[in-house]
Amino acid sequence: MLDAPITRPRVLAVAMQKGGVGKTTTAINLAVCIAELGQRVALLDLDPQANATEGLAVEMGPDDVSMFEVLIDIEEDRVPLADALIESKWGVSVGAAHRAMRRLERYGLGPSGYTRFSRQVSELDFDVVIIDCPPNLGELTVAALAAADSVLATVKPGPDEIKALIELQRSVQETREGLNPRVNIDYVVSTIFDGRTLVAKDVRRNLEADWSSEYLGEVSQTVRVAEAKNRREPVVFYAPETETAADYRRIAKLIDERMPVHV
Ligand SMILES: Nc1ncnc2c1ncn2[C@@H]1O[C@H](COP(=O)(O)OP(=O)(O)OP(=O)(O)O)[C@@H](O)[C@H]1O
Ligand SMILES: [Mg+2]
């Protein structure tokens, strides 16, 4: 009998260098929704703020390690990525973040840090890996871009959001030229979206015009997201009947259909 083909996971980095634009909310809810579609999903929290780790109620036990130990430059302290994943309650395995990762942002991942991380991600025995990035274009975001097949950019309607998207595109292009030829902004989502406001309508019009193949639509604004966050639950579980939950389920399905499987 022939062996089943070995596939590597499809890797999606959720990125935008601006703070508070819905990256983490998007990463955790898409992770949970894609897992519900039957995929084995790992979520890697590369933000020292650890919001994704907290949002999925992941508690680190005494024997658990975070992404800090995975990414650290010092070989004898390093732990393989596959050994660092922690089961969450939501059917998603999590590479937890820790505030010590701020040191990595400041001092870097070391000479082969990006390629080492990228190789470890590609060797994970999962179908989909989602990486939550911090709100900057520093070391940890570059590590995520180096490991990703696709970037999902979150755009919160506001005056300079399109400019921020273009700036992110420049960084992705630099990563493509140097570290990772396959990475691309393949998906754009408008988050925390209130269709009654003029600025939201403007952002939608711009994205539909300039990012027509990448644009996956809007995620509606709702107070339920803050409530879910307080309870450390993804909103798709906490308030599955909301438009926001339906938006995330729809976008998860689109990404699952569109992201190519690598053999
Ligand atoms: N659809 C939504 N409706 C209402 N509030 C939302 C929605 N999505 C996110 N928020 C709120 O907006 C804030 C920022 O969201 P989130 O933490 O996901 O953004 P972020 O880009 O990851 O932020 P950071 O850059 O700090 O990591 C949070 O308080 C979150 O609860
Ligand atoms: Mg975040």
UniProtKB/TrEMBL annotation:
It comes from Mycolicibacterium sphagni. Gene3D superfamilies: P-loop containing nucleotide triphosphate hydrolases (3.40.50.300). PANTHER family: P-LOOP CONTAINING NUCLEOSIDE TRIPHOSPHATE HYDROLASE, PARA FAMILY PROTEIN CT_582. Residues 10-185 form the AAA domain. Pfam families: AAA_31. This is ParA family protein.
